[in-house]
Amino acid sequence: MRNIKYAILGGGPSGLTIAHALISRGVPDHDVVVIEKERTVGGLCRSEEVDGAPLDIGGGHFLDVRNNEVLDFLFCFLPKDEWNEFERIAKIRLRVIEVDHPLESNLWQLPKADQVDYLESISRARAVHGDPAPEAFADWIVWKLGERIAQDYMMPYNRKIWARDFGELGTYWLKKLPDVSFRETLRSCLDGRPLGSLPAHGRFLYPKRFGYGEVWRRMGEALGESLVANCAVEAIDLVSRTINGRWRAGTIISTIPWTQWPKFCAVGREMESQMGALRRTSIDIDYVPHTLGSRSHWIYEPDEAIAYHRLLLRSNFCQASRGYWTETNSCRSPSAVGWRHRNEFAYPVNTRGKPMAVTKILEWAASKGIVGAGRWGKWEHMNSDVAVAESLAAVKNHLANGKWA
What are the tens digits of pLDDT across the range 112-153? Predict the structure, then answer.
């Protein structure tokens, strides 16, 4: 039995960042342990060599350039000169035409007749007229973007990625979508150029000689004996905060899915119900050795007759590689014909009851000396740069104020 101050469950971006942030701020490394069930750290950001080049097994992961604190932190492990910087080329396939993403900023790339149809649809969108937002997911999409964008892109794409009835989905998470201005959209079509704000990864970094998993691999290596890999969590004593009978922790930081916790310990009927209410998707990553004649880094595919919802053209961002990979909700995947990796836990689903369930789980966890962090600790989709930023802020707040952000 070993007594430690911090036991971190999961060696993905959040867990690794929290460990390094604690140690860099003065916590002795022997008081920090990261417990990771896989042989390699990185979580959904791991990379493997496939067909002679790196492939990111969790789908498309890239480092956004906008947060300097995150960049400075990660450059400590994979220096800046080991990254290439790209101006994002992301496309949406609309039948036989590929349009830059986001669609509402790039309608000018469509034939004139289609531009007129989309503009007329946006002009009728109730959000443009200041009407209150509806509660139902499908109604919200139409309210925000208009009937045409909803039917041609947003609705089919969301049916593919979530593979569930829209009635289960909430709308609280959609509020981060930028406003659609009819005036800006019209001006964009008249000027023949995009207007409005770009979403995340407008510019991004990707390693020159490795997959995205390299930065996390080096972070794990730098932890030395503070990392215990190839070690699944099997049992947790909630009273003493003892994990697998080996580590007794002052605080447990959980970045692993809450739905797994009833397997480790008796969480009680109420918490088992709350954890069981959380939903997630599984995603299959399939490699195709054929190199497409496109400059895009990735392409969104809303056509419901096609199983996958996104292609990642690795030869356009990963040096000395060929081919591409696809992302498909596992419920929609055909039989594998080549290399495939299944991510059982890929995306948290924003169901209507999720916010209340997560609030209750985190309150219960705090009463036990347990903190939830990262994508699965907060049950929230976040890019890796966001996970790092939130983890750095959480450690800073904890060490300064005794509270986790």
Answer: 999 999 999 999 999 989 999 999 999 999 999 999 999 999
pLDDT band at 279 (very low <50, low <70, confident <90, very high): very high
- The dihedral through the CA atoms of 22, 368, 382, 342 has a sign that is positive
Question: 278 Cβ partners below 8 Å, 6+ apart?
Answer: 257, 258, 259, 348, 349, 351, 354, 357, 358, 379
Residue 37's nearest CA partner among 15, 4, 6 is: 15
Nearest of 100, 27, 126 to residue 299 by alpha carbon: 100
pLDDT, mean over the chain: 95
Q: Which two tokens stand for residue 76?
A: 């400590």
Place 288 in a pLDDT band, splitting at 50, 70 and 90: very high
Distance in angstroms (rounded) separating the CA atoms of residues 5 and 301: 47
Residue 330 above 90 pLDDT?
yes
Please compute the mean of the pLDDT values over residues 306-319 and round it to a whole number: 96
Residues 6+ apart with CB under 8 A from 96: none
Q: Torsion angle of alpha carbons 283, 349, 265, 377, nearest 10°? A: 100
Phi and psi torsions of 258, nearest 5°: -65, -25
Name the β-bridge partners of 90.
Answer: 298
Q: For residue 43, give the nearest of 278, 345, 258, 308 by alpha carbon.
A: 345
Query: Which residue type does 156 have?
Result: P
Domains of the chain (ranges; CATH) run 2-89+206-401 (3.50.50.60), 102-191 (no CATH)
Q: What is the pLDDT at residue 198?
A: 67
